[in-house]
Write a structure and sequence with these properties.
Elements: H1 4-13, E1 18-19, E2 21-22, E3 27-29, E4 34-36, E5 42-49, E6 59-66, E7 71-77, H2 88-94
Parallel strand pairs: 1-7
Antiparallel strand pairs: 2-3, 3-4, 5-6, 6-7
């Protein structure tokens, strides 16, 4: 997949229909109707996109699921999680872990 929008479209077809927002200590969706905490979700897939000429155009797209809440959705983070004011638990949950 070449672009962020193409990847989002593909994930939507795979059932990742929620739009998560990153809050200080959780992910929210449905206008705050669901709060999903660091131990209630997993990152199923992630994609990194780099800007052609401007590092500010970089983004990470997360495909996230929560069995506890029966939700699947996406989180787009353009600035990087390290610049967000979030708890250490959320930071650890969103770190991209390399396979052994």
């Amino acid at each position: 997949m070449d672009t962020l929008s193409q990847t989002i479209d593909t994930l939507r077809k795979e059932g990742y229909t929620e739009d998560f927002n990153l809050e200080q200590n959780c992910l929210e969706c449905r206008a705050g109707g669901y709060k999903v905490f660091h131990d209630e979700f997993v990152i199923d897939k992630y994609y990194r996109f780099e800007g052609d000429s401007d590092p500010a155009d970089e983004a990470t797209l997360y495909a996230i699921s929560s069995d506890k809440h029966g939700l699947k959705g996406i989180l787009v983070n353009g600035a990087g999680i390290y610049t967000q004011d979030i708890t250490n638990e959320m930071l650890d949950a969103l770190k991209i872990k390399k396979a052994d």
